[in-house]
Amino acid sequence: MYEKKIPKDFDCGMSITLEIIGGKWKPCLIDSISKGIRRPSELHRNHPEASKRVLNLQLKELEDYGVISKIIYPVLPPKVEYFLTELGESLLPLTRHMEKWGSDYMPVFNELQRNKSKVDAEAVVFG
Description:
61% of the residues lie in helices and 9% in strands. By secondary structure, it is mainly alpha-helical. The chain has a single domain, classed as Arc Repressor Mutant, subunit A. It is globular and about 60 Å long. The mean pLDDT is 90.
């Protein structure tokens, strides 16, 4: 297994929070599971822009940190469902606040993106 040369510093709460929920899809997965989307195929369908491999890796990391639990039902074909643990439930105010902040900031972000595209296009033309 790969071992980082510089060890991670977990002396502050922010670094611990980012270790646990940092990742492009982790907050989205926590939110989806809280809304009742529990099966891996449903999670993949709900986030089609994410690869199955990345979603599975991030689900595994959330499980390793105790944020979610996985139940494998003894049926054929195998059925798997994810549930938030008590720790995962405690993250819901944070993920909901992140969602609200992003929604509130969306108009500004979209305007910045449009301006960036114009600047990039001008750089190509005048470059």
